[in-house]
Amino acid sequence: MIRSHRLETELMREWWVQVGLLAMPLLAAYLHIPPPQLSPALHSWKTSGKFFTYKGLRIFYQDSVGVVGSPEIVVLLHGFPTSSYDWYKIWEGLTLRFHRVIALDFLGFGFSDKPRPHHYSIFEQASIVEALLRHLGLQNRRINLLSHDYGDIVAQELLYRYKQNRSGRLTIKSLCLSNGGIFPETHRPLLLQKLLKDGGVLSPILTRLMNFFVFSRGLTPVFGPYTRPSESELWDMWAGIRNNDGNLVIDSLLQYINQRKKFRRRWVGALASVTIPIHFIYGPLDPVNPYPEFLELYRKTLPRSTVSILDDHISHYPQLEDPMGFLNAYMGFINSF
User: Fold this and answer.
1) How does the protein associate with the membrane (predicted)?
2) Which of 240, 246, 209 is nearest to 115 (CA)?
3) Closest Cα partner for 159 from 136, 175, 140, 135?
């Protein structure tokens, strides 16, 4: 009886070893799946853009010339975990109002470099925006900032530098924020974000195991029920993330959540004492910045700011979910001063 049990145990152990030996090359192959090919639209976005170098790192940007004779410049700051391509649905509309429409992929995002290991920070991203404007010879021009999500926090740091009259800072003419977690206390990160931010030794494993299915299942709920992205749109987002192995730096990028808590006084304070025109475009179904808690705190903290609330079913990505509503809200703000 004992001998039979031992034999059974040995056979079971041998079976698991064989399964492990078979699984290892399959897992290894899976973890080295090449990034998806770019769709024609995303490929066109890349080829129409340019790169500049910041401290040895290549940063992708778009710079379109729009209305001739207008002095107006708008700089677009995208959100997490996507890229400047988030703005493509309103890009043409912006060129009909502004002389220059400029957007970049932050370091670690989209087509920009994604170094690892690297200490990603909001401070560095703000410095990259300043460096881009110097590269384009626009450092002394008045800039309209339009931001979303992660980009809102970068805009807060740029606003702080502007108010402090820091050397090399942008001269900000106006600021429009959208669906960003500018208040740590009302921000509700997704489960995957929490796991990656606080995963410790598990984070590198989780980032390598992340695939299109996990990504799309995680991102889709932050869109409204009637405005969710198509599968091809999700693949475009995923292709931007996978470019330059960007999935492997997501946990490092997510440290911005901790930075936002640490520097709340600096960044919320910059907004609270703002003197330039400021506006917020809000998709009210946003589970990340929920209604009404977020909006109540925003209006209490920034009583001078104007707000556009889009349709009830619009959520966290308003410029993609309701591009016409978003563009009309922004133009109404720009034309108000």
Assistant:
1) Multi-pass membrane protein
2) 246
3) 175
DSSP 99: S
Using DSSP, state whether 181 is helix, strand or coil.
Answer: coil
Q: Distance (Å, rounded) from C-alpha 164 to C-alpha 166?
A: 5
Are the C-beta atoms of 95 and 101 separated by less than 8 Å?
Answer: yes
Q: Is 226 exposed, middle or buried (0-12, 13-18, 19+ CB in 10 A)?
A: exposed
> If we measure between CA atoms, which residue out of 273, 73, 260 comes closest to residue 164?
273
Domains of the chain: 40-335 (3.40.50.1820)
163-185 pLDDT, tens digit each: 998 777 899 999 999 999 999 99
Burial of 199 (0-12, 13-18, 19+ CB in 10 A): middle
171 DSSP β-pair partners: 142
Report d(CA 128, CA 150) in Å as an integer: 14
pTM of this prediction exceeds 0.85: yes
Taken in order 136, 142, 148, 149, the sign of the CA dihedral is: positive
Q: Which residue in this structure is represented by tokens 């698991």?
A: 16
Q: Residue 89 corresponds to which amino acid?
A: K
